[in-house]
Automatic annotation (TrEMBL):
It holds the Pfam family Recombinase. Residues 1-20, 233-256 are annotated as: Disordered. Residues 10-19 have a biased composition (Pro residues). This is Recombinase family protein. It comes from Nocardia jiangxiensis. It comes from the Bacteria. InterPro entries: DNA_bind_recomb_sf, DNA_bind_recombinase_dom, Resolv_N, Resolvase-like_N_sf, SSR_resolvase, Zn_ribbon_recom_dom.
Amino acid sequence: MTPDDTTLNPPAPVLPSRPAPLSVAVPVSGPSGLSDYAVSPLGVPVAVLRDEVRVAFVGRTSTEDRQDPRQSMMRQLGNCKAAIPESWVVVAHFYDVESGRMEVEARGQKTGYERFDIPIARDGGVADLLDEAAHPGRRFDVVICESVSRVARRTFEGLSIERELERSEASLFAANEPITLSGSRAQRILQRRINQSVAEYEVLNTLEQSWGGLCTHVREGWNIGKPPYGYKAKTYRHPNPTKAAKGQTKTRLEPDGVRAETVTQIALWRYHESIGYDTIADRLNADPAKYPPPEPPNPERARGAWGKTSVCEVLRNPKYTGYQVFNRRASRSRHGKVNDPVKWVWSTEPAHEPLIPKWMYDELTARRQARRGSRDGNRPNTHPATRRTYVLRGMVFCGCGRRMFGTHRHNITYYQCWPRSNNRDRPDKYADHPKAVYLREDAILEAITRFFADRVFGPHRRDILTADLDGIHDRTERERQFERERLQRVVADVTRRQNSVLRQAQNGDRDDPFATALRSTYNDLDAEKNAALSIIAQLDATDEARPSRPGTALLDALPYLTLNLTAAPEPLVRRLFEITQVAVRLRDNSEVTITITLPAG
């Protein structure tokens, strides 16, 4: 034999067909007639090579909003029965009604199949299939599915399930793949991996396209889901005429009367008085008729009162700034955990009337981290070891950003930053930080006293404030100009859309339903444009009034005094510091910046 005649995988000798099994098994010796692929360690299990093979069917279908689970499961079983050899018998049925993107540990735990009249006896889900496959007395030899995407939509989960079955010597076959017992397994694996890749590509591509549609929907200012407290949904005709003809609509947000006023009042209390969530909740609960409490989606959870969490949610929701915002929470992927703000999807411009000005929301957000965990007032801590209070508690910050805590040693009060105490086993958090940083309270109070004596109650306070006002830009004027430009863009966009509607209606029959819908759309756009023009006229009238810049009337109403805050009663000093929003910040461990904000009213 020459080298050219060498066959890498010679065919097995042709043997007569195996006789039908007798009532008593008679061992047959001699060549099996199987190929080298079949008898190799990489081939199929021996049980598959017998005359009769027991088969377990595994199926999966999504919920009813995607397809009909009853018809889908019947189709899957029918295709599997048509694909298996004649000597194979389906003896068990395992199927689930759930998403194919779930992790292996969560598979087979759903009970959604009970809601559908599926005429297939169910022996369990995929989790039950894996448990029985590992049992030595299992009822089946192989597993069949319509396609590998029915086992799992993601490749990793599909490979994990396939690997578990392989360890139990229960081969997994698919109806849309060739079922061969003596051919190359490598070829079957190649085709299967291609099918799995295509299945994962299809689901990811569909999800990405759907996600892109949601983001575009939000960037145009349309609302998704239940309106937040303080807003209600205003329904608009769908901008797509075909969908509008089917009755589909979209919604935007609009203020909801007294609830909208409550949201604004919460922000004002927080911004001007810097009070905590509990204090705000107490004020709201003191007059529930004026400040109605929020109602959760589930009425059984309703408390009928404001709580700390509900106040916090109002102050953290960016929709109150007038912008439409989406993807604040990972509702499915991370069980409702709040996403990083960098992942939030914002509308390109304000889409509804704001209840909290954008600049105020940004400043409240910046303050929140500094006040985190700090309670209102200066009452003693509830800890039984508490012996004293600190007049500057919660107002002194280290250069590292941490809030400094009070300590009393040798009859001297200090404010201390000791990062190691709350960053154990995380040395990277204080690698460049001194072991401890101290600030004396009497030194801080002396500096604050000088400020109040000179700039608030001193004789030259008017001149100092006037010099400061000369360098302040009028933020109100900026906001009005921004709002005017936004409304002008709205008017231009509505005019463009009206012209488009007119062009479509020119050639239409007067009694045609489509032309009637176009007229209704034109009227809606005209009302929207008139509302925007009315607001622009109000802004112009406000500009003509020329509001005066902040003056010195507040300082003129105060007496001339010489203060010594170190000698004043601590509760009064604490109240003064809270009203004026005193903040002490240590910079570079050597320079201290003291910020004091005089209230507007």
